[in-house]
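As a warm-up, study this chain.
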Amino acid sequence: MVSKIILAHPRGYCAGVTRAIDVVELALKRFGKPIYVRHHIVHNNYVVEDLEKKGAIFVEDIEEIPKGNYVILSAHGSAPDVKPEAEKRGLKVIDAVCPLVTKVHVEARRFHRQGYTIIFIGHRGHQEAIGTTAQVPMHLVETAEDVQNLTIDADKIIYLTQTTLSIDDTKEIIDALKRKFPHIRDTPKEDICYATTNRQGAVKRLARQTDLILVVGSVTSSNSKRLVETARYAGVDSYLVDSKLHIKKEWLENVDTLGITSGASVPDVLVQEVIDYIAELHPECTTETLHVTDENVTFVLPPELES
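Now compare it with the structure written out below.
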């Protein structure tokens, strides 16, 4: 029987996600329906469905959008040819890419100009990895085993990383890179974003006090899946749930203290629904918050939406 719920803080929306959602909602208010969005603006089903109800239309291909309309590019970043292609088709483009993803893109182009061979640590098929690896030629590695399969003969090598990775897994890959390429250069500034780092740190703290950790987030969300991995790496069972509907009662058997957190693209309404559901099953349970750190990061809006 669950007697206590401990909520991780920080959890949920990061500054990049808040900005991306604001971009879509402000564009709808300013320019009217419909507003087209290339790829899901953030990786959360609830958020996407909510924006669709408000008038957003999500597409995967620019060619699906009728000429003359507005198109918003997702927070995960896009290949360099997407915006010119959209403008060539007569579309009005607003880029909602997270500034921390843009930083990695800028680094990639700069080091390519300087003659570096770039190794990118990321997840194949993820939108951020697709957008980043399209900036300049680079090698993508997802595991330490991928590192062993690299064949590179270059004096100047540097690694960059996807912003939503597991800190622990990334360290293993970086260690493998340094063993194989002792002269490889570290990324000049940590690429894994502050929100990913903070949420994983909170989960590690949560793992010391709980018997099970539920991570609220969609299966398409890289940072949410990394939170589950972080919890398990710390020795605690953990499951990813898109909503309360995905919770299996048998998970809660023999659980006294339950930890709950959420990915960086998850609205807190979904977390509250999970808490309420657990409270219905276990009316005597109490709820408290594990406060690890505060976040005060904000990002400016794209110029098209500045008042």
